[in-house]
Amino acid sequence: MSLRARLVLAAAYLLVVVVIALEFPLAVNIERRAQSEFRSTVLGYAGVTASQIADQVGRITQAEAAGGSGSDQDRASVDRVVSAYATQSGARVVVVDASGRVISDSTGEAAPGTLYETPERPEFQQAISTGQPSFDVRPSETLGQDLLVVVVPIMDGSTVVGAVRFSAPLGTITHRVHVAWIGLVLIGLAVIAAGLALAWVLATSLAKPVHRLEHTAEEFGSGNLRARASPDGPAEVAALATSFNRMADAVGSSIESQRDFVANASHQLRTPLTGMRLRLEAIEQEGGPAAEDARKALAEVDRLSALVDDLLELTRASLAATTGAAVDLSRVAADAVERWWTQAGEAGVELRLDAGTRRTVLADAKDLGQVLDNLLENAIKYSPGGSRVVVRTLDESAHVVLTVADDGPGIPEAERERLFERFFRGSTGRRGGPGTGLGLAIVEELVTRWGGTVRLAPSAPGAGATFEVSFPALGSAASAPNAPRDTGADGRQTSERPAPVPAPTDS
Ligand code: ADP
After folding, report:
1. Are the C-beta atoms of 394 and 400 separated by less than 8 Å?
2. Which residue, by CA, sits nearest to atom 8 of ligand 1?
3. 233 in ligand 1 pocket by Cβ < 6 Å?
4. Ligand 1 pocket, 378 CB below 6 A?
5. Of all helices (H) and strands (E), which one includes residue 130?
6. What does each of the 507 residues of the chain score in pLDDT, given as a tens digit?
7. Among positive and negative, which fits the CA dihedral 100, 101, 103, 107?
8. Which residues, including other chains, have CB under 8 Å from residue 434's CB and lie 6 or more apart?
9. Cβ contacts of residue 310 below 8 Å, gap of 6+?
């Protein structure tokens, strides 16, 4: 996981914990306060109602005790008060006398005289017997929501003459609480989002110098020994960048002195080798018994010269790329085929070119020519007479691919992994005569120098070898000012005949 992702995750964890720790108690508090406010309001209504109807209920209770039913005027007066407060509070209001019989019901469901103080309604019992108000919250099946039930005794002096019950649905209150909760959740989410945005900005400012350092290390690793990190950002990262630069200085100068040594040694070897060759040629020309030995020694000098040349080339190839230019790979392929035409003919190998229209890559034309020279040299050298070598360029979306395919002996499975190692010579190479084992190593250096890759394409045993080089494409146009010479009707360049001007081979 990236540094930025870790920092943002840590911030997210902290923010979520803090928001929950703050908002959860607040949410519980909001619910409690809403319920207690509602209870006080309903209790207030019940108290006022009880005091306003106390006289009437007292008289009705007395009349009932004497066997009557109280005056209609009192009952009507109770009904009026009950219905007024029921409308104001939105609750159902039931008034009972001291024996628990209904005097008035705001909904009219319970008829006057009905015994209402039953075991299912214990709240009346408590209010009438203790003279204290009672509260209860219970679910109502008919309304499908909770009800707040408040019962207040009706006092005539110090005597309990009845009770009034307010049952108010808690729906509106619950709705209000839920709205408040949603508000809290939204505020919490906004705080988390703002915190995360801030964390992202901070994490980015921390991660950027680390990424820059990583990029420099990659650049250094891919051969640019001059790549250095800028020591900015947080103190720890700046210190790391400074240490990296010190290490890069040490490693860079060590690698450079090694390269210089190899380059100088190879260069210095050239002059004595030329001198040796001249002397051996002279001995060979003199004839006599020493001539044969001189010829053999000349072959060794040739090998040594080839090795010195390849070492120099490898040193050059492993230097970081300077500035490249747009190079048409199809054109480079056509030129290489032209260069190798004569040599291929002499070896009895048919050389074909299958290069399409312009395929542009950012590179150095000389480097690409060298890549093709090494691949073609191998293909021609290791393929028996009568076989065919095909050079092809293709467009593969963002890449331009160059392949050199032969139908020679191919590469044994066991050797494929080591093919690009320096000084590695395979069984075919050893059978095929002199060689340095550096050709493919040079190819790999030159290709990676320009951001490309080279690989041996999979093939069946004995079905030849196909080397595939791929570069990021700069863009390909259907036609170009320097379009290849032999362009077929389909726009593909084909060549099956000797090039018009045979170029001298430089192998
Ligand atoms: P060299 O050709 O001097 O031996 P290279 O690095 O060019 O060195 O090649 C390494 C080995 O890869 C060769 O020795 C040979 O065994 C094998 N090889 C390279 N190209 C081919 C090819 N076209 N067909 C068969 N074998 C090949």
Report:
1. yes
2. 437
3. no
4. yes
5. helix 122-130
6. 787 888 899 999 999 999 999 999 999 999 999 989 999 999 999 999 999 999 999 999 888 888 877 788 999 999 999 999 999 988 999 999 988 899 999 998 888 888 888 887 888 888 888 888 988 888 887 778 888 999 999 998 888 999 999 999 888 888 889 999 999 999 999 999 999 999 999 888 888 888 899 999 998 887 788 889 988 888 888 999 999 999 999 998 998 888 888 888 888 898 899 999 999 999 999 888 889 999 999 999 999 999 999 998 988 887 766 678 999 999 999 999 999 999 999 999 999 999 877 788 999 999 999 999 999 999 999 999 999 999 999 988 789 999 999 999 999 999 999 999 999 999 999 988 888 999 999 999 999 989 899 999 998 887 899 999 999 988 543 323 333 333 333 334 444 433 333 333 333
7. positive
8. 299, 302, 303, 306
9. 436, 438, 439, 442
How close is the Cα of 235 to the center of ligand 1, in Å?
51
Tokens at residue 34, please? 């809403």
Q: Residue 346 in contact with residue 432, Cβ under 8 Å?
A: no
Type of residue at 391:
V
What is the 496 CA–ligand 1 centroid distance (Å)? 25
Contact 464 CB / ligand 1 (< 6 Å): no
Count of CB atoms situated within 10 Å of the CB of 233: 20
Q: What is the largest CA-CA distance in the chain?
A: 164
Contact assessment for residue 204 and residue 4, using Cβ atoms and an 8 Å cutoff: yes
Q: What is the 3-state secondary structure (H, E, C) of 237-290?
A: HHHHHHHHHHHHHHHHHHHHHHHHHHHHHHHHHHHHHHHHHHHHHHHHHHCCHH
Residue keyed to tokens 């020493």: 290
DSSP 465: -
Residue 115 DSSP code: B
Atom of ligand 1 minimally distant from the CA of 408: 24
